[in-house]
Design a protein that fits this description.
The complex is a heterodimer of chains A (390) and B (62). Chain A is 72% helix and 1% strand. Chain A is an all-alpha fold. In chain A, helix 6 packs antiparallel against helix 11, helix 11 runs antiparallel to helix 12 and helix 21 packs across helix 22. Chain B has one domain. Chain B is mainly α and 62 residues long. The chains are: A mainly alpha (390), B mainly alpha (62). The A-B interface holds A 104-105, 108-109, 111-112, 114-115, 118-119, 121-123, 125-126, 129-130, 133, 138-139, 142-143, 146-147, 216, 218-219, 222-223, 226-227, 230-231, 234-235, 369, 372-373, 376-377, 380-381, 384-385, 387-388, 390 and B 14, 17-18, 22-23, 25-30, 32-34, 36-45, 47-49, 51-52, 55, 58-59.
Chain lengths: 390, 62
């Protein structure tokens, strides 16, 4: 009789077996993510599905993941969209369709902020590589994990996922994606103190000129094609990311695919975000998530984010040493990829210092450059680390 | 610094890169990556400038 009851209510006995009590911690983490999404509105479209997915997959026996050697629906989604890198690529098509590169065409030199703000990726990669052997991760494993942790600093969730997937870091994909997406949503909290620490009030009040000229359509059409070809020749590993981003952008700019552009920007973006979020949440299985490496990933992810912001600001300050017309160094911080949140944060900060100062368009230029910079950086990290691990 | 020797050697191979210490491999990725990102974005910059010039020439001719 007791055996029968045990079998029927095996959901209760689950928590008493082995390490299964850790699932309770995951419910709390999932709850926190849902709270942040609803109450604080931090990237709700991602954090809510991630939080719910984390709860789902940690329910007794993880039926949604696998049951009696049959894949559950979340495992099916994982295999179909994350393990083969499809979801990040689809997201990039959607992002490409949303991006207007016109502000960058008017301030082409802003593209260098998109490079400078990738500084944190590489610094974090190096520091993580030094620290990982202390927790028992060495050699090629350390190189692969450090790559994905560094990329978190790009504030670019799909690129982070792409790199982590490329190196088959299945057991770390949960903490890596949670760090990437939650820090992305925390841009308004993380960036301002770093910027204020590195700039003076006078620097933050610098005004910048902006040319309001229409960009010829031919430039808007040629740009995505040429960028794809250049990136494809120099960093072939970045082609899936650059190619999908630029494909989305070409759909937007060509002027004859209005319906596809609308679909990519709305239906596709929403659908993939929905599936991506809950599938990422499903990777947060307690047995893999709760360990010291997760703490390291979250810590160094934040470190990467801070150093990326600092890299952009310091690069602008460096340029100001030589320029007659000074750049507002806050613009450099928009060189991270969190589009368009970072640009908005910079404009808000500029307005706080001087209500009549308008630097939004320059910030957007740096922000879209950051989008390009982060995927190129992702491509380079994969290409260089591949040379060392293959 | 095996790293510098490897880079100084024009014919450095993947083998020699793999035999470096972990931190040297890290340094290789950092330097290569930063230079690479700046180089590619520099090319994007020239692409934009070139397209701008072509655009303005076209305008003038019209």
């Amino acid at each position: 009789m007791i055996e029968v009851l045990k079998e029927i209510f095996n959901g209760f006995t689950f928590f008493g077996q082995g390490d299964n009590w850790k699932a309770l911690i995951m419910y709390v983490i999932g709850g926190i993510l849902i709270y942040l999404a609803i109450k604080k509105e931090y990237e709700p479209s991602l954090l809510l599905p991630i939080g719910f997915g984390a709860i789902l997959v940690n329910l007794p026996w993880a039926i949604v993941w696998e049951s009696e050697n049959t894949s559950g629906f979340l495992k099916v989604l994982y295999d179909a969209g994350i393990a083969n890198e499809l979801f990040p690529i689809l997201i990039f098509i959607a992002i490409g369709a949303m991006i207007d590169f016109s502000p960058l065409f008017k301030n082409p030199y802003m593209i260098f902020f998109g490079a400078a703000a990738q500084f944190g990726i590489f610094v974090t990669f190096f520091v993580t590589l030094i620290v990982l052997p202390m927790v028992g991760i060495t050699g090629t494993d350390a190189l692969k994990l450090a790559s994905a942790v560094g990329i978190i600093g790009a504030a670019d969730g799909p690129t982070t996922l792409y790199v982590a997937n490329h190196f088959q870091l299945t057991q770390y994909i949960g903490p890596i994606s949670v760090a990437a997406y939650s820090y992305m949503s925390l841009v308004p909290i993380i960036q301002p103190p770093v910027i204020k620490l590195l700039t003076t009030k006078k620097e933050r009040r610098i005004r910048m000129e902006y040319r309001e000229e229409p960009v010829p359509k031919v430039i808007k059409i040629l740009f995505p094609i040429l960028v794809t070809v250049i990136a494809g020749i120099i960093v072939p590993m970045s082609v899936p990311l650059v190619g999908s981003l630029m494909f989305g952008n070409l759909i937007r700019e060509c002027g004859v695919l209005e319906r596809l552009s609308e679909t990519a920007q709305n239906a596709l973006a929403n659908l993939v975000t929905l599936l991506l979020g809950i599938t990422i949440g499903a990777t947060m299985q307690a047995s893999q998530f709760i360990n010291p490496v997760t703490g390291l990933i979250l810590l160094f992810g934040l470190f990467a984010f801070i150093f990326d912001t600092a890299g952009g600001v310091l690069f602008a300050k460096f340029l100001n040493l030589f320029l007659k017309r000074k750049i507002n160094p806050m613009i450099g911080a928009a060189g991270i990829s969190a589009f368009p949140m970072s640009a908005r944060v910079i404009q808000k900060m500029a307005k706080e210092e001087d209500p009549t100062n308008f630097v939004l368009m320059q910030s957007i230029s740096a922000n879209v450059a950051g989008q390009l910079g982060s995927i190129v950086a992702g491509g380079f990290v994969i290409a260089l680390v591949n040379m060392l691990v293959s | 610094m095996k790293f510098l020797h490897v880079l100084a050697d024009a014919g450095f191979s993947a083998e020699s890169l793999r035999s470096m210490a972990l931190w040297e491999q890290g340094l290789f990725v950092v330097i290569g990556g930063l230079i690479g990102v700046f180089l590619v974005l520099l090319l994007f910059f020239f692409t934009i400038r070139l397209m701008e010039r072509l655009g303005s020439r076209k305008k003038k001719s019209e």
